[in-house]
Amino acid sequence: MAAKDYRQLLEDLRAGKIEEFVVTPEEFMDFQPIYHDYEYRTQIEGKAERGGELHYHLIKRD
User: Fold this and answer.
1) Record's superkingdom (predicted)?
2) Rounded to whole angstroms, how far apart are CA atoms 14 and 35?
3) Of 2, 10, 17, 21, which is most buried with the most CB atoms under 10 A?
């Protein structure tokens, strides 16, 4: 299985091309450094779900 392009997923989320994406516990260690270095990470929020999945979405501004 090919690794996810987390940077592209973050960009697609910010651009409104996707509404959310999911990071599994197994993927988190690969995702975390990319998320930490992403300059717009304050605009993106992750919500932990049962089973350890993280669902990331754009923070809605009023």
Assistant:
1) Bacteria
2) 13
3) 10
Strand, helix or coil for residue 41:
helix
Q: What is the pTM (predicted TM-score) of this model?
A: 0.89
Strands 54-58 and 20-23, by their bridges, are antiparallel
Report the chain (62 residues): mean pLDDT per 10 consecutive residues: 86 97 96 97 96 95 72
Q: Phi then psi for 45, rounded to 5 degrees?
A: -125, 140
Residue with tokens 């754009």: 58
State the alpha helices, DSSP H only, in the chain.
Answer: 6-15, 28-37
Residue 43, phi-psi category: left (phi > 0), alpha (psi -120 to 50), beta (remainder): alpha
